[in-house]
Q: What sequence folds into this?
């Protein structure tokens, strides 16, 4: 990839395509569709170009009528990505379909989807669109800029890269938001969970149930997308600035949560933790590469450590977290994010992945991972409900089920749930960390670039 091509290589590729098209016309006696990328400059193959090509190819193949593709071939080479199809469609209808894909998004300006009728004549887009495409740099109509060479290769390259980056920035921010929402839904559906709302019961809570959590997660989905966009928009600024803007968005999200739940606090902790993770993912966003897990945790710390130190040093007792820090030196979730979520990184993720590799389904792997978090994390929700003694007792119960690496049964987890309910314990902080485990595991497996 990223290799410059010579003119002779482009001419050879064009000749090869023409030969392949004629062969398909002779073999199938049906229209032929050839899809290439309109990329200026000598570099025709990069991870970003491949991703844009894959997006266009998937859009095309999704639109083609079922059973209409008689032959298809995809090539990826130094001269660029290519796909060729023999299609059982009326040629003008096929050209109308491809033109609609080229015109429906700015990214489509980089698509060349040529249609040849059964006699080998290439259909002009004016036949169905009525006009040529606008200039990629200045937006002038028609081919005037190209014929006059009004813009340099460098300008054309910058414009094509901007089109690709802008397209995938929006798509990936929405994808990050969707992953965060799905992680909240998976957390509440993980069953059984001691003292927490799940599919079995409402745990130690009397003012909420699983439907309250689902309504809250749905209401927060746009917020998580906003957090990712904030991260992208501030990626070149100091990380503390990203967190400052996330806090303002988080305050609005709290109101959206309360509106959806009738005033019940279902996800205040997740608004904080997951919002930071989405912002960090946005800061690290690269449209042509997957996220690096270690860098994500480092970014969380860089964004929050100064603000969290200032938060904890403030006088006052407006939150449970600050009161516990002032009285007992417990840093809670503020200390977690300032250190880059070590409980997620060193406890939750290793446990979850080990259980999955051992054959546990996602639900049981998550339920068992939660036990590890309860046993090892100082949960301020537990302390607020049961004091340090009650929280320590709950952690000991969870640890006992994991002793000697044994595998607790669902019945034992249900019994632990009953114990937590009787003691009014609810490890809500650990539940937020479990949701973060789900999110980071999914995000790390996302592949934004076509290999």
A:
């Amino acid at each position: 990839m990223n290799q410059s091509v010579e003119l002779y290589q482009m001419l050879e590729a064009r000749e090869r395509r023409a030969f392949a098209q004629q062969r398909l016309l002779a073999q199938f006696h049906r229209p032929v569709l050839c899809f290439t990328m309109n990329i200026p400059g000598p570099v025709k193959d990069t991870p970003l170009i491949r991703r844009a090509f894959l997006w266009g190819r998937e859009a095309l193949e999704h639109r083609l009528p079922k059973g209409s593709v008689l032959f298809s071939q995809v090539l990826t080479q130094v001269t660029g990505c290519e796909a060729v199809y023999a299609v059982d469609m009326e040629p003008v209808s096929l050209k109308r379909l491809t033109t609609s894909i080229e015109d429906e998004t700015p990214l489509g300006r980089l698509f060349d989807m040529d249609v040849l009728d059964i006699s080998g004549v290439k259909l002009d887009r004016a036949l169905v669109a009525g006009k040529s495409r606008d200039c990629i740099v200045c937006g002038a109509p028609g081919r005037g800029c190209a014929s006059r060479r009004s813009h340099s290769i460098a300008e054309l390259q910058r414009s094509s890269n901007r089109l690709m980056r802008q397209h995938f920035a929006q798509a990936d921010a929405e994808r990050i938001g969707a992953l965060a929402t799905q992680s909240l839904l998976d957390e509440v559906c993980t069953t059984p969970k001691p003292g927490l709302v799940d599919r079995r019961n409402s745990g130690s809570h009397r003012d909420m149930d699983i439907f309250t959590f689902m309504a809250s997660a749905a209401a927060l989905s746009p917020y998580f997308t906003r957090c990712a966009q904030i991260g992208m928009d501030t990626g070149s600024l100091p990380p503390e600035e990203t967190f400052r803007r996330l806090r303002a968005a988080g305050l609005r999200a709290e109101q959206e949560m309360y509106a959806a739940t009738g005033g019940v606090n279902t996800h205040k902790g997740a608004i904080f933790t997951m919002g930071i993770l989405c912002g960090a993912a946005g800061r690290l966003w690269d449209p042509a590469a997957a996220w690096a897990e270690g860098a994500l945790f480092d970014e969380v710390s860089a964004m929050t450590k100064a603000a969290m130190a200032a938060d904890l040093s403030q006088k006052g007792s407006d939150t449970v977290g600050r009161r516990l820090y002032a009285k007992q030196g417990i840093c809670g979730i503020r200390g977690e994010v300032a250190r880059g979520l070590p409980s997620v990184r060193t406890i939750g993720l290793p446990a979850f992945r080990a259980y999955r590799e051992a054959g546990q389904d996602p639900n049981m792997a998550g339920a068992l991972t939660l036990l590890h978090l309860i046993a090892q994390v100082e949960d301020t929700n537990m302390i607020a409900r049961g004091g340090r003694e009650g929280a320590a007792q709950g952690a000991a119960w969870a640890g006992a089920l994991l002793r000697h690496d044994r595998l607790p049964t669902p019945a034992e987890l249900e019994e632990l749930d009953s114990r937590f309910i009787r003691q009014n314990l609810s490890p809500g902080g650990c539940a937020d960390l479990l949701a973060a485990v789900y999110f980071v595991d999914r995000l790390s497996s996302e592949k934004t670039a076509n290999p």
